[in-house]
Specification:
Elements lengths: L1 H12 L3 E6 L26 H21 L3 E6 L2 E2 L10 H10 L4 E4 L5 E3 L1 E2 H13 L6 E3 L4 E3 H11 L6 E4 L14 H7 L7 H25 L1
Parallel strand pairs: 1-2, 2-7, 3-6, 4-9
Antiparallel strand pairs: 5-8
Helix pairs in contact: 1-2, 3-5
Protein name: UDP-glucuronate decarboxylase
Pathway: Nucleotide-sugar biosynthesis; UDP-alpha-D-xylose biosynthesis; UDP-alpha-D-xylose from UDP-alpha-D-glucuronate: step 1/1
Keywords: Decarboxylase, Lyase, NAD
Length: 225
């Protein structure tokens, strides 16, 4: 509904509209890495489908307004992104691991930890979105870092960065959790002249120092009450 309202506004005032879509439109992909031409493998009635299908519908609406009402649109499919100032307890895997390691809690891994994700630093994403909005191509464009990590590998990088003695706790996997996730960004490289510059090992410490400051302040605040 939010996308529909904003498309109506863009049509009325003649604005260029940016849809920040998601790699989740690919569902649990049978193609690896994922190109923008891939239509995806999504369970329409699964526990994740409200998000997956919501974003797929948002892309449909955006293209309908572009074709039917000549609204200028741009579509970005964003892959996992991390960085400072994220919500500490937002439930995303990088936030979870970093917060747990700082609080000296076990890192929670769901399933066997062999499922993969690709993690881009927030400033790379911002550069990609600016290039998309300033360019002449509608998209969709995959905006993500092709560096692919299993959850266990991510946990090891977090341990190296924060606390090498941190332990890992395995829990049952969630339903319809994608097994693999890696963007093919050749289209963005060619048409937007964009690719990510910051590796996970470079970007993670920047996020960690921000989380450490906030968690420390949070703990001090609790001690004063």
């Amino acid at each position: 509904m939010g996308t529909l309202n904003m498309l109506g506004l863009a049509k009325r005032i003649g604005a260029r509209f940016l849809l920040t879509s998601t790699s989740e439109v690919y569902g649990d992909p049978l193609e690896h890495p994922q190109k923008e031409t891939y239509w995806g493998n999504v369970n329409p009635i699964g526990v994740r489908s409200c998000y997956d299908e919501g974003k797929r519908t948002a892309e449909t609406l955006t293209m309908d307004y572009h074709r039917g009402a000549e609204v200028e649109v741009r579509i970005a499919r964003i892959f996992n992104t991390y960085g400072p100032r994220m919500c500490i307890d937002d439930g995303r895997v990088v936030s979870n691991f970093v917060a747990q390691a700082i609080r000296r809690q076990p890192l929670t891994v769901y399933g066997d930890g062999k499922q993969t994700r690709s993690f881009q630093y927030v400033s790379d994403l911002v550069d990609g979105l600016v290039a998309l909005m300033e360019g002449e191509h509608v998209g969709p464009f995959n905006l993500g870092n092709p560096g692919e990590f299993t959850m266990l590998e991510l946990a090891e990088v977090v341990k190296e960065t924060i606390d090498s003695s941190a332990t890992i706790e395995f829990k049952p996997n969630t339903a319809d959790d994608p097994h693999k996730r890696k963007p093919d960004i050749s289209r963005a490289k060619e048409l937007l002249n964009w690719e990510p510059k910051i590796s996970l090992r470079e970007g993670l410490p920047l996020m960690v120092s921000d989380f450490q400051n906030r968690i420390l302040n949070e703990d001090e605040g609790k001690g004063q009450k």
